[in-house]
Amino acid sequence: MANTVIAQGITIEGELTSDDDVVIQGTLRGKLIAKDSVNVESGAVVEADISASSLSVGGQITGNVTASDRVDLMAGGRLIGDVKAARLTIADGASFKGNVDMDV
Amino acid sequence: MADVTVVGQGLFLRGSIRGEGDLEIRGRIEGDVEVTGEVTIADGALIKADITARRITVRGAVAGNLTGEEGVRLEDGARVVGDVRGAAIGITEGALLRGNVQTGAGAEGQKGRSRAAARPTVRVEPRKAAPAVVVSKPARRAETSSADERPGPPPPVVPALKKGARASLRKRAR
């Protein structure tokens, strides 16, 4: 089980800092800085800038995203904002609007 | 709700948590917590926030007011500085509390009052509360000391602890 879970029905507002991985199924507004992976699951709503080692997006994110390792935009995922990551995958069926910076 | 929201050990939140569902806190929170379900504050958690929930169980450190509609339980290892309100309040041996306590009528929520008889509870009449109540032994002791001898400051509650037990308690509190 993941160390931190924001379940459906819960809204967190503010600044989150985490040493471990974070799973979001509910709503987050503000800012998220995680040293490990962040998983935004289907149904989640995130209005926050996210910084993580890896990020997987199945829900909806509005905000800029930075990952030291990778960003995976899954089918059904929706991302509005800029992505800065070494690796980026966008699955068929994902929505994305923003700039990409892959450290070329 | 199938999933419980968990605030992990390595997590620090400055802000608020609101919504429907249960919550388990093992990390650090500064701000505000208001949920409809049960809140469990695990050993090692560090919280500076007012907490409002249906039921609250504390095994960690909290600076803030606790309002449990149905009840609040302070278990071994709990360190609470703040006011506690709820229909039924249980303070287990080993829990530390500094603040006002209000149970039953006047506290939020009337549900779950029958539970009060089943477990140790502190019943404080709704009048001017003592400036500080420190409970570290069974709750009944606090009941007699705070309810009987008024007016005047409450007598200090001196738990009959073994030699060295106090020091170790204090050490743990750090």
Largest sheet entry of chain B: 12 strands, parallel
Helix and strand run of chain B: EEEEEEEEEEEEHHH
Backbone structural class of chain A: mainly beta
Report the radius of gyration of chain A as a whole number of Å.
Answer: 12 Å
Mean pLDDT of chain A: 94
Tally the beta strands of chain B. 12
The N- and C-terminal alpha carbons of chain B lie at a distance of 36 Å
Q: N-to-C SSE series of chain A? A: EEEEEEEEEEEE
Radius of gyration of chain B: 16 Å
Content-based structural category of chain B: mainly beta
Most extensive contact:
A-B, 26 and 25 residues
Number of helices of chain B: 3
Provide the β-strand percentage band of chain B: 35-45%
Strand content of chain A: over 45%
Any low-confidence stretches of chain A, pLDDT <50, length ≥5?
A: none
Q: Fraction of residues of chain B in helices? A: 10-25%
Mean pLDDT over the full residue set of chain B: 77
Q: Name the overall outline of chain B.
A: globular
As residue ranges, the low-confidence spans of chain B are 108-121, 123-133, 136-147
**Helix count of chain A, per DSSP?**
0
> What portion of residues of chain A is helical?
under 10%
Give an account of the 3D structure.
The complex is a heterodimer of chains A (104) and B (174). Chain A has a domain at 41-104. Chain A has strands at 4-6, 10-18, 22-24, 27-34, 37-40, 45-57, 60-62, 65-73, 78-80, 83-90, 95-97, 100-101. Chain A has no helices and twelve strands. In chain A, strands 1, 2, 3, 4, 5, 6, 7, 8, 9, 10, 11 and 12 form a twelve-stranded parallel β-sheet that branches. With 104 residues, chain A is an all-beta fold. Chain B has 174 residues and is mainly beta. Chain B has one domain. Helix content of chain B is 13%, strand content 40%. Chain B has three helices and twelve strands. In chain B, strands 1, 2, 3, 4, 5, 6, 7, 8, 9, 10, 11 and 12 form a twelve-stranded parallel β-sheet that branches. Classes of the chains: A mainly beta (104), B mainly beta (174). Chains A and B meet through strand 1 and strand 2 of A and strand 1 and strand 2 of B.
